[in-house]
Amino acid sequence: MKDYTAHFLLILINDLQHCLVNKLFPNYLISQCNMLEHLSEDTVMLHACKLSSVRSDPSEHLQMVIEHIKAPTEGQHYQHPLPPVGQWGPQPAQ
User: Fold this and answer.
1) Which helix (H) or strand (E) holds 93?
2) Alpha carbons 43 and 49: distance in angstroms, whole number
3) What are the φ/ψ torsions at residue 26 (nearest 5 degrees)?
4) Between the CA of residue 52 and those of 33, 42, 44, 79, 88, what are the distances in Å?
5) Contact of 51 with 20, CB cutoff 8 Å
6) Three-state DSSP class for 26?
7) Model pTM?
8) What domain of life (predicted)?
C-alpha cells in the first residue's frame, strides 16, 4: 500500500498558503466567520513567508520540530500538574 502522507501534507500547506494570501479562512461550523480578518497585512505576509519556507523543504522543518520535542530545554523538566496521590488534600502544618 502506497503512503501518500507527504503528498497530502503539501496539499494542506498549499491550501493554508492560499487562505493566508487571500486572508480568508472560514470557520468550519460558521462559514460566515472569517478567522483571519483580524490579522494585519504584515502578520499575514510574515506567516505566508514562513509557510513558504516550510513548503520549500518540509523534511528539514519536520526534523527540527522532532529534535525540539525530544530535547528538553536546559534547566526545564516536565512537572506533572498534580501532586502525588498521597499528598492530595490539605497538608499538615509543619
Assistant:
1) none
2) 10
3) -65, 145
4) 25, 15, 12, 36, 49
5) yes
6) strand
7) 0.62
8) Eukaryota
Rounded to whole angstroms, how far apart are CA atoms 48 and 21? Answer: 7
Neighbouring CB atoms inside 10 A of 26's CB total 13
Phi, psi of 34, rounded to the nearest 5 degrees: -90, 115
Residue with cell 501532586: 83
Do residues 52 and 17 make contact, with C-beta atoms less than 8 angstroms apart? yes
Helix (H, G, I), strand (E, B) or coil at 34: strand
Would you state the cell numbers that stand for residue 84, as one nine-digit string? Answer: 502525588
* Spatial separation of the C-alpha atoms in residues 54 and 48, rounded to whole Å: 10
Which residues does 17 contact at the CB level (< 8 Å), separation at least 6?
48, 51, 52, 55
Of residues 78, 67, 61, the one with CA closest to residue 10: 61
